[in-house]
Amino acid sequence: MCPATHWPERAAARCIIAHSTLQDYSQLLLEQRALARQAGTLLPVLLLSSREKLDEHLANADALVDDTLLTPINETELLMRVRSLLRLRMLSSDRGA
């Protein structure tokens, strides 16, 4: 398995940041979301995508992605979006999602 697509079993992910150039990212996100759902947690996903490829990924985005950030990436905006997704995750777990 490619290191870029390997998810350590013992590490509990709080958020996934995936780039649209990652091969088979949609299958990977589905698997991770299913595992999180089984554990009773929300696993927010942020997709990094180039403006040129955005239309290509809209179909998957509706089902798999909570937020999309276009490249080139502004570090401050990335941190703000991740913090927002983590807050949503925390609120969701507080409500028993």
In words, what does this structure look like?
β2, α2 and β3 form a beta-alpha-beta unit. The protein is globular, with a radius of gyration of 13 Å. Strands 1-2-3 form a three-stranded parallel beta sheet, with helices on both faces. The chain is of the alpha/beta class.
Percent of residues in helices: 40-55%
| Helical segment count | 3
Side-by-side strand order of the widest sheet:
1-2-3
Biggest sheet character: 3 strands, parallel
- Number of β-strand runs: 3
- Which outline best applies? globular
End-to-end C-alpha gap = 32 Å
Please give the structural blueprint:
Layout: E1 16-19, H1 25-38, E2 45-50, H2 54-64, E3 67-71, H3 75-94
What labels describe this entry?
single chain; three-stranded parallel beta sheet; alpha/beta; 97 residues
Quick recap of the structure?
With 97 residues, the protein is of the alpha/beta class.
